[in-house]
Structures are given as C-alpha cells and as structure tokens.
Amino acid sequence: MSENKEPQVASAPEGQKFVYDFTEGNRNLKDLLGGKGANLAEMTNLGLPVPPGFTITTEACKVYLDSGEAPEALRAEVSQHLDALEQKMGKKLGQADNPLLVSVRSGAKFSMPGMMDTVLNIGLSDKSVTGLAKQAGGDERFAWDSYRRLIQMFGKTVLGVDGELFEEALEQAKVAKKVKVDTDLEAADLKKLVRKFKKIVSDEAGRDFPQDPREQMDLAINAVFDSWNTDRAKLYRRQERIPGDLGTAVNVCSMVFGNLGPDSGTGVAFTRDPASGHQGVYGDYLQNAQGEDVVAGIRNTVPLADLENIDKASYDQLMQIMETLETHYKDLCDIEFTIERGQLWMLQTRVGKRTAGAAFRIATQLVDQGLIDEAEALQRVNGAQLAQLMFPRFDEEAKTEKLGRGIAASPGAAVGKAVFDSYTAVKWSRSGEKVILIRRETNPDDLDGMIAAEGILTSRGGKTSHAAVVARGMGKTCVCGAEEIEVDTKRRRMTAPGGIVVEEGDVVSIDGSTGKVYLGEVPVVPSPVVEYFEGRMHAGADDADELVAAVHRIMAYADRVRRLRVRANADNAEDALRARRFGAQGIGLCRTEHMFLGERRELVERLILADTDDEREQALGALLPLQKADFIELFESMDGLPVTVRLLDPPLHEFLPDITELSVRVALAESRKDANENDLRLLQAVHKLHEQNPMLGLRGVRLGLVIPGLFAMQVRAIAEAAAHRKNAKGDPRAEIMIPLVGTVQELEIVREEADQVIAEVEAATGTNLKLTIGTMIELPRAALTAGQIAEAAQFFSFGTNDLTQTVWGFSRDDVEASFFTAYLEKGIFGVSPFETIDRDGVGALVRSAVEAGRATRPDLKLGVCGEHGGDPESVHFFHEVGLDYVSCSPFRIPVARLEAGRAAAQSSGSDSR
User: Fold this and answer.
1) Of 62, 333, 403, 829, which cross-links 247 as Cys (Cβ 3.0–4.6 Å)?
2) Does the reported pTM lie above 0.90?
3) Is residue 206 exposed (0-12), middle (13-18) or buried (19+ Cβ within 10 Å)?
4) What is the CATH number of domain 23-254?
5) Would you name the residues annotated as active-site residues?
6) Is 785 annotated as a binding residue?
C-alpha cells in the first residue's frame, strides 16, 4: 500500500464473525484463521506461554481484496477485541506513559515464509517512546531502537518506501559511530536515526509517519491484506501450487521484546533437524534481538544449544515445550520464540518444512515411536521429494579446490555460474545457463532468482534464515552462513580465504549436504537412493544407508496398498531391464518408430519410394527380421510381464532427409550436372509427403490403412517374436496398440488384418499366442466415442500428450517456447497442462471414456502412457478414475509407485471416514 487513504468499508453477510481471540480458535481452523493464527490458538489452549492477541480471519481478507474495502463490521470487532486485550494487559495501545504495543503479522493457511508482510512495535510514537523507556526501567536505547524499527518496517511495508533508503541511513549511522553492528549504536545515535527515518518517510511517502496508534494498526492490517497479492507472493504460490483465492489472516499480538539486553533474545527452533531428520537440539538464537533479525540473517546467530549456557531456565522450559508440541502435532515442529528478560514466550509454531531426506527419515522415526501408523507415514512424503533424492551427488573422491564452508541448509549438488543478483540469475537462466545465486543474505524480493538458480549460497544466516527456509520448501540446494567468504554484490564478486576471487560468471559448486563450497565444476556420482533401486545398495548403519532404509520401508508399504500398477515407457531391452530394476510391472509403451532410425532409415526410405508392390514387399521383408529381433530382446527382458507395442505412429516425413538440406543438395548437384537419381526421388517424396500440420495428418492408424502391408509386417514381427520366446520356454505377454484411432471403423479394419496375421503365425509355429489388441485414446473424438471403440478394443491406453494438444489446440513444441511462460506468470495456468493433467478438460474426457468403455466391455484394461503417468498429482487422478496402470519413463517409476500408494491410502482413509 503506497498511498495515504482512510480505511474504507464493504458489506459482508450479516452476523459473520471476522475476529477471534487466541482463546477461541484451534489448529483445525486453518482455513479461517490461517496457519499462524490457528496454531497460536492451539498453543494457547495447551496452556503454553503465548502473548495475548486476536486473529482477523481470511474471510475479512477476501472481502477486502474483492471490493478494495474492509468489511463494515471489522472495525467494531477489532475495537472490541482491542479493548479486551488492553484490559488483560492493563495498558492501552500507544498510551503515552504506559504503552501497549502490538505486532501485526500475516498468516495464510499454507506457510509462505517471508512472502507477506509483518509490522512490529505498532503503537510507538513521539510521545509513547518515552513511556516505553520507562516500562523498560529507563532503557532509552531499547525504546528508541524499537521506534526506529517501527518506522523502518512501517515505511517499507505500509507506505511503500524503498527499504534501501533506511538501510543506507542505518549504515551511515554505524560508520559515523565507527561500529559494525547496530547493537553498538547508543540511544543518542538512535534518536538521530529516528529523525532521519521520519524525514525519509515524509519525503518518499508524501506524508508524515502517523502518530495515532490506531491509525498505525488499521493501515498495517490493510497492508497485510494487500501483501497477499504482491508479485513475490503470487510467484511463491505458483511455485508451490497454493491456490490464489485463499487470502491471509492477520494476527494482532501483544509485543514481547527480545531486544531488552543480554538477558533477552529471540530464536527459531526445530524439534528435529529439518535438513537431516535427526533428533537433537536444532535452531538458532540471537541475544538482544527481535525476530526479524534472525529470519533476515543480517546478524549471525549462535546454535540453539548455546542457550543452555546463556539462560538455562528458559532453555529447559523450551525443551519441554518442544517435546509437548511434537507429541501433540505428531510431527516436526518449527517454533519461533522470544525471551524477554528471562521470560520465555512462544510466538509461533507450525509443522516445519524439511528436506526430502528428512521427510523420509522423520516419517519412519515417528512410526517407530508409535506417534503415527504406516498409512500416515506414507502421507508425510511425496513423489517430488523422492525425485529429489534420486538426483546425483558430488563425488567425494574427486580433486576439488575448496573455497569455504557454511551451514548445510538444504541438500543437493548444485553447479553453476556465480551471479550476485536475482535479475541476472533469471536472465542467464532463461538463456540456458545454470547459475548459483550468491548473496550476503536473501530476502523475499530474491524469490524469482532463487527459483531460477540451481542453488543458493549466502555468507550470512543459519538454518532458519530466509534463504534456508525457502530453499528447503522448493527443494533447492542451499548453503548459508559461509562467513569466511566475503560477498561484494556491488562489484559482483566474492572473495574466499587465501585471497581467491570469484567473479560473476565463474563456475562454482555448492554441496547442500555438507555446506562445502568449491571453485569450478565438481563431478557427480549416482545418488544412494538410485543405487538402492538399481539393486547396488542395501540398508545399513551409516547416514546414506539410514536414508535408504527409510525409503525402502515406505516404498514397501506403498507397493502393498496401491491398486494402480506401474509400467515403463521403454523402447529397447536396456531401458526395459533398468525399468524392471526400478520396479516396473511391464511396458506400457514401446514406440516402434525408434526401431526405424539409424542404419535402418535407408530401408524406410526404400519403403516410401517404392513404386510397385514388389518393391514395397521387399522393403517390408527387409525390415521384418530386424523388428522381430528387437521384439525378442524386449520380450526376454520383460519375461512374464505385459509389453504394449505401439505400431508406427509418426508421419513418414520424419524418416526422410530435411527438405531444406535435400533441396540444397539437389540444387548443387544439378549445377554440377551430376544429379543423383535417388536424391531426386527423395525430394519428390518429401514434397509429396509435406503437410502443413503433420501431427494432424498422415500418421498413426492412417499409415496402416494407406500403406499396404506396413502394420501387417509389424504385427507379424511381434507375433513371431512372441512365438520364438514361447518355444524357448519364455512367457511373452505382448499387447498390440493401434495409435491415433478416431473411429471404431479404423480399428476394426486394422484388427481384422492383425487377427489374420496372428492366426497365420500361430499355425506356422504351433503356438497359442493370446495376443491382445487395443488402441490409444489420444483424440477427443476417440474419447467421446469410447463406448463404440471398446467393441473392437481389448484395452485402452490414454495418450495424454496428444490428447492435451488436441483438446487445447496446442502444438506443444511451439507453445511452450512462445507463450506458456506468460500464461504461467499471469496465472492462467497454475502449472503446464503438459506437466500435470488438466482435470477439467482433458481429465473430463478421460473420465468419460473410462465410463463408456467399461460400460461396453466390463473387462476393458485401462492405462495411460503419456508423460502424465509419472506426474504425482496426475497419478492421483488416474487412481480416482479407475485406470488399471500408469506408464512412465524408467527414472520416474519409483515416483509413480509411491504416489499410487499414497492415492490408495488417501482414498482408503476417506472411505473409512
């Protein structure tokens, strides 16, 4: 909010309650009170030391955002709760001699660390600052420090003043005093700083800093509402797939002060290590500070364990509260607290964000401790986390040049060019460069750069700093608090011990698992989780084996409960064998076009150029044994499991030379008068086959109908390969899939020819092959007439890549590069429909086709072989609509297995409720 305007009002349903005291709510009201408000209420109900306060609901925020005005009843409700708070505290908001001060903090249903606004010390003014000093036993420094903080926060957050102006003034004050940290500034210095801050506000905002405490509070509340729709908040929601219509609650809480001297302080604690999942004492503490100092990372903290030596009574009480909260929430808890002159206060708790490895470890630990069961453990992890665990890690045996070491905040092995601001990170990333974002400390304005970067490195802050918390939430590699590295963002360089200088553009490597920072590119090796899936690693005692053991336990449970089977998209024996090691239960898509490339392209050219039946049959005859050999290898590698072979799908021009290159070649040859007859025929064929939109032209089933013998050759190769395996005592389970069918008549014609070929092979080899024939559903018409098509098909496999293209009218290769970025930024897409199934459009057709197909043929086998088959959210949809299997690339098979188990456990839980 950048302009000065009186709070406006809007109407809302009569009798709607917009404000709840902390004593009225509970943790189940997150939709209404936001996560922070619901959990403050829960801690209050548990009898924990929470400063009194109240929460303004998300419903009030929605009214404000929809109309641009606060609800009409809100002011009166806030006044009522403020009066009650003042009576409870025995002082009034901002009164001159004994001021009540409050914080105004955001709190959405889902945690959005640092993305929305907070204002502390509301109620301070030129008059009440002396009253605050009196409350603090005459500590003028504390009072004026609190006042300068309010003006700085309020000016930036509420009045839209550039925060750098306040930072520059603060730096100038420290330089003038010849000190390095703000805690060394004295009361007189801070008084001058307050006058300077107030002038900055007056000059930049066009108004004076408000002296009326209620005006401060009302404007701060509206600013928090407005912060729901800031660019950084929208970007974060898109990144985390948080709905944009939830709104934020606002928490008004009586202030407690951690900046009252060495017996005061503020900190963040975790009931377990959010990076590893190990139990112990984890967190950061900062003496003589307010909470924003810890999260911002502007002063380096001490480990939470040091609090035991600083203030043992508060430490012991905090440990007891942490145990209470973890037992109550049955999960890792993230806690914010303040100590005010030896008195511990709880300011927030929430289920903490954690790394992927920590998620798996913690889930199994909680099972072992009897806090949750296996079904709940399965819900505590997800496929995206498992995919992170499968990324490579740095080779510990490689020769490296170490630059320094920081705090291992979020694991992973990240390599990229050093950049020192978010703009450059985004710009270089869009140009295809991999970058590491390096900052002294990050703030919410760095979010777009953090998303673009491979990893984040900061010289300040700890595991609870903004960089660490956001990176863990996004699954980004992060090293924080590398104090020995000096970061100079203005000169765009960093200097490591020994005088090693890294300029922007130099390659660096950061290890989020150890905190080590290296110069240059460090080689990577496979993840232990991948080695486990490959069968090269087993659970043991060390840290990596402990992680593998946790993954093994959760995967075993997912496999026991899931209904969906998981197959692989694989075109050769090597991919098939790897997929089988990863847990594939068959092949859901073997693309035969890959078998026509390389040295075989010449045979395809002969087929295309054939002028007579004899020429065409010779070309097909040459291809037959090659295809048969491919299928024999494939069936052997997947012995005993189904293998769905898709007959030739792409347009034939893809097997011919590029039209431009061929035209140039022919033109040059003609100019030399040594034209090649074959090139001339090829050029004629390329022109003949040229289509304006080949993906909607002569391809798929249409090829089988137009080119005599093509599909028959492929069916014969499949059948003869299956017969060969049977005679070798194998167990081939081949399924023949006809692509791009739009009408049942196409399928009937191809199937009649295929059945005849299969019968001939069975008679010739003396085998009973039991081959099934089905089709891909990848056109809207096929989905809409699925009941008819099921009369001729024994199975459907949804080709959701093409189905998405044809439903949306998108050419994937074109639109992703041209306007998808804009659609994502404008919120038209929450996620690309090629990444996650479009439930309302494409999904509706899939659901309809499933119902119609099974109505015609109750035993119809149903699967999906588009890329959505390995997408976690899409897997849940396919479970819901009743598919029998999903098929995906080998690397994504474990992810699909896990999500299929989670989908089954969720639906089972819903049924039981």
Assistant:
1) 62
2) no
3) exposed
4) 3.30.1490.20
5) 466, 865
6) no
